[in-house]
From TrEMBL:
Pfam families listed in its UniProt record: FAD_binding_3 (PF01494)
Residues covered by the FAD-binding domain: 124-186
Family: Belongs to the 3-hydroxybenzoate 6-hydroxylase family.
InterPro entries per record: FAD-bd, FAD/NAD-bd_sf, MOase
Name under which the protein is recorded: FAD-binding domain-containing protein
Origin species: Papaver somniferum
Length: 220
């Protein structure tokens, strides 16, 4: 999350997003002469560790390495250090994953802690106040385990614009009602998705060897 997103949430009384005990390296491997992979998501699982990669264009391959960590650790901005740490985690894993990481330009690799915020009904603050309204991660940060974060932010924007389209010319009361309607409609989708993404991530990051065998067999 960007700092201004956190600040906007704090203005409306939302708590800080909660760190979930794992971090992720992410990047874009670059193949100037064309990447060789099939158009599908490839996953690799370990104990408290998982990785994946998927082509996103004819020359670029998105990859991630997610690992358990008791704390987010210090912020690292040196791309060489980030790449080295990611490769160390998966050094005995498939060679194509290591190659993709090695082919990642410095400006496309990041490390982030995974966080979320659960919007409890009747407990969480309102999504709008004093002319400020939240969308996306500023309101409902969720883990990337379902690949729904950016999609939900776009859905927020579509629903919000639709509610406001007929209210802007009708005055403050109509606008306030439109914002409440936006919150009510979106909550029913966002809250279950946030919880589901959290639970899926927790399951995939388990370190128990028996659970890992069951998980791996279910994905084979």
């Amino acid at each position: 999350m960007e700092p201004n997103y956190k600040q906007n949430g704090n203005w409306l009384g939302f708590p800080e997003p909660q760190y979930l005990g794992h971090c992720a390296f992410r990047g874009l491997g670059f193949y100037p002469d064309g990447q060789p992979f099939e158009p599908k998501v490839n996953y690799v699982y370990g104990r408290g560790l998982r990785a994946g990669y998927v082509p996103v264009s004819s020359t670029k391959v998105y990859w991630f390495v997610c690992f358990n960590s008791p704390s987010p650790g210090p912020k690292i901005t040196d791309p060489a250090v980030l790449k080295n740490e990611a490769q160390k985690l998966v050094r005995n894993w498939p060679s194509e994953l290591l190659e993709i990481i090695d082919r990642t330009p410095d400006d496309t690799i990041i490390k982030t802690p995974l966080v979320d915020r659960w919007l409890w009904p009747k407990v969480s603050p309102s999504v709008s106040s004093g002319g400020l309204v939240l969308v996306g991660d500023a309101w409902h940060p969720m883990t990337p385990n379902l690949g729904q974060g950016a999609r939900c932010a776009l859905e927020d924007a579509v629903v919000l614009s639709g509610k406001l389209a007929t209210a802007l010319d009708a005055g403050p009361v109509a606008i306030d009602d439109a914002l409440k309607a936006y919150e009510k409609e979106r909550w029913g989708r966002i809250f279950p998705l946030t919880i589901r993404a959290n639970l899926v991530g927790s399951l995939l990051q388990w370190e128990n060897p028996i659970v890992c065998v069951v998980r791996n067999n279910s994905h084979s």
